[in-house]
Amino acid sequence: MAVVFLFILKDSTSKAGLFIGLLVSFPLYIGLSFVMAKFGYQRKTLAELRTPRAASSSRSSAPTESGPTRNRPAPTRRTSSGPNRPTSKKRR
Predict the structure, then answer these.
(1) What is the per-residue pLDDT across 43-66, written as a single tens digit (0 to 9) for each?
(2) 8 A C-beta contact, residue 15 and residue 9
(3) What number is the average pLDDT over the span 79-87?
(4) Per-residue pLDDT at 41 exceeds 70
(5) CA distance 48 to 29
(6) Contact by Cβ (8 Å): 5, 22
């Protein structure tokens, strides 16, 4: 990883900051991973990520019955059914 950074930033004069940043960020990454693992976080495998998508696509191709209906929100001044623009005054 450090070699990649060296090739990208080879015209930079000081590389000390780059290496210090890498050395500091690695323990932070490990610590955050440890805390997340303690709380029960587990990454899903690719197969687990694909399963819900496949189930939803097969469901969408089948004819659906009347699903849960949402009530229409109450009309407001901006969403009223009438004209939204004020009427212009007629010229004399």
Answers:
(1) 888 888 888 765 666 555 555 555
(2) yes
(3) 64
(4) yes
(5) 25
(6) yes
Q: What is the number of other CB atoms lying within 10 angstroms of the CB of residue 45?
A: 9
pTM: 0.38
SS (HEC) of the chain = CHHHHHHHCCCCCCCHHHHHHHHHHHHHHHHHHHHHHHCCCCCCCHHHHHHHHHHHHHHHHCCCCCCCCCCCCCCCCCCCCCCCCCCCCCCC
Instruction: Extract the tokens encoding 72.
Output: 């229409």
Please compute Rg for the chain using Cα positions: 29
Cα dihedral sign, 8-9-11-16: negative
